[in-house]
Design a protein that fits this description.
Aminopeptidase; eight-stranded mixed sheet; two-stranded antiparallel sheet; globular
């Protein structure tokens, strides 16, 4: 699972304008709950915990969404819970509705959030699973750069393997509360050493999870 980041004053790649696209902080929880496929109670809990939702509209139709964590966040797949420091934001739970996939909404939504939140945020962080290639491509188009790979260590803890030596990967590890490691990561980011799955026999044929529409991005 890749950890990527965008820091204030990093370049923002130019993307072709989509004339009918607008991005706003979500104001209508009923609309957001339907798009996000969660309950109103869950939305209220997220908001009370400092999470800020955004919606991308195409010609006024809600087409994609995403959340900005400003106080605390978690990566449920890895069992990580962490505090989000001041001037940092963690981006999570993004999706494009199937009807609108393939139009490049995801990177444009990410860039719009950066622009909306940059007055109070200097560092944005985000993750994506390696099998979700459209998600990784969209982050790159938006200007995010991967700094490390998250996965389980042999003893069951989560570690971050740097993609290159930099202060960003060190700060990312400190943010998540995980150690920097050079090796000894599980070949499958989902699995601990004591678990057996097809990934250990053939990492390219991982069947640990079945993707659902709302984790597919463009």
């Amino acid at each position: 699972m890749a950890l990527a980041t965008w820091w204030k004053n990093d370049p923002i790649p130019g993307l072709k304008l989509l004339p009918d696209l607008t991005v706003e902080r979500a104001a209508d929880d009923t609309e957001l709950a339907q798009l996000n496929r969660v309950s109103l109670e869950e939305l209220h809990t997220r908001r009370s915990n400092g999470h800020v939702p955004y919606i991308a509209y195409l010609a006024g139709i809600p087409a994609a969404y995403g959340w900005v964590a400003t106080q605390a966040a978690s990566i449920g797949e890895l069992g990580l819970n962490f505090v989000v420091p001041d001037r940092d934001s963690y981006l999570w739970d993004f999706a494009t509705h199937p009807r609108w996939q393939g139009r490049g909404l995801y990177p444009r939504l990410l860039q719009a959030i950066i622009q909306h939140e940059s007055d109070g945020t200097e560092r944005f962080w985000i993750i994506h699973a390696p099998e979700n290639l459209p998600s990784g491509a969209g982050m790159g188009k938006a200007g995010f750069k991967a700094v490390g790979q998250l996965a389980f260590l042999s003893e069951g803890r989560v570690g971050l393997a740097p993609l290159e030596a930099s202060d960003r990967v060190q700060i990312g590890a400190a943010l998540l509360g995980v150690p920097l490691v050079e090796d000894d990561l599980s070949p499958c980011w989902r699995c601990m050493e004591e678990l057996i799955c097809t990934c250990r026999l053939s990492p390219d044929d991982c069947t640990c999870a079945t993707p659902v529409w709302h984790s597919t991005l463009d």
